[in-house]
Amino acid sequence: MSKTVSLLSALLCTFIWGTTFVAQDTGMDEIGPFTFNAVRFFVGFLSILPLALLIESKKIKFEYRLDDKIFIILSFLIGISLFLGSALQQVALLYTDVANAAFFTIFYVPMVPIIIFFFKKKSIHWSVWPSVMLCLIGGYLLTNFHDATIRLGDTLVIFGAFFWSTHIIFTGMIISKYNLPLTIGAIQTFIVAIFSFIISSIYEKFIIENIFKEIDSILYAGILSGGLAFVLQIYAQREITPAPAAIIFSLEGVFATVAAWFILNQILDINNLLGCLFILSGVMLSQLLPLVKKNT
Description:
Largest sheet: none
Order of helices and strands: HHHHHHHHHHHHH
Number of strands: 0
Oligomer: single chain
Shape: globular
Structural class: mainly alpha
């Protein structure tokens, strides 16, 4: 049952992430990318904090110590990874479209097992590799990249994908030691909000009136993506290891493309539909093939 809950959490999280690309894209008409992220993640922090205090305060008091060195280090690492990944992705949307941003973001799918394999020296189930290839092919088909050159935004998203991969890995590490998904979610969103605000105060104009003009996009990206989705990710990774989790999260490319077609009227053609099919196949393989070995 817990594995099923984790899978459902991962799928809902991925749906929110995918549809949030549209909010991220439309939310910068009047404000800069770092201002958007600062307000977005602070809204996410405010939405999580009351739940964390209500639900997990007893655990913190009797079971865990938040001043533990490992907890502090891992919390900082997931916060910085999330800040760098989201910052590069947000800036990239100024120079590329939603579909391409979604495709290059899912480069974290091959990065996660590669990083785990080389740095943690852990063996990975063979099904991860064909699943990764299917997801990358699917992501390619979801975009119009085959008709264009790599743009500045695409390059930034690729760099950001590295930090999304470290975020997934560090999240898997911290949730395996500390079953505090709401508290961890609140801490990481607060870190991102603080660092984003520092950068925005230096390089951008922080105008309250303009922020309120983007309030719809900010609330969606803040409460649902910056708050709920990242908590769901942490819940999901309690039962799903980082490499298969990254493959499931690659479905955000599917949801982003469909959302861009539905809301922004971006074209959804036969290649896009095939891309969705490839990614869905990759996700299913990553989950079903390990079960076949267990049952034989």
